[in-house]
Design brief:
It is a single chain. Helices cover 0% and strands 56% of the residues. The chain has no helices and eleven strands. The protein is globular and about 45 Å long.
Amino acid sequence: QVQLVESGGGLVQAGGSLRLACAASRIRIAINAMGWYRQAPGKQRELVATITRAGSTNYADSVKGRFTISSDMAKNTVYLQMNSLRPEDTGVYYCKADQLMSPNSYWGQGTQVTVSS
């Protein structure tokens, strides 16, 4: 079974930066896309950014111009560079991998990001 492990979360002041990483292991299937989602307390999980195997990216409007997603698909790794962080970016950030030509998706356990004002 695919295992996704996130790293890089932490506490940062508003205006600061963090870089998240997600590495997929135990891969026996091809991955079509990877992405980052977040969930703030009391709110639903929401999309932050995704990147496909071909390199196409998609961002939530709230993070455009501040966050950058990148990947090394050969290593099944995805990154999220977060700049100009705001308190509203606080939440648990989850990594997701979508299997190629399949409805299957896999989630990491999440990493906490806290932005203080």
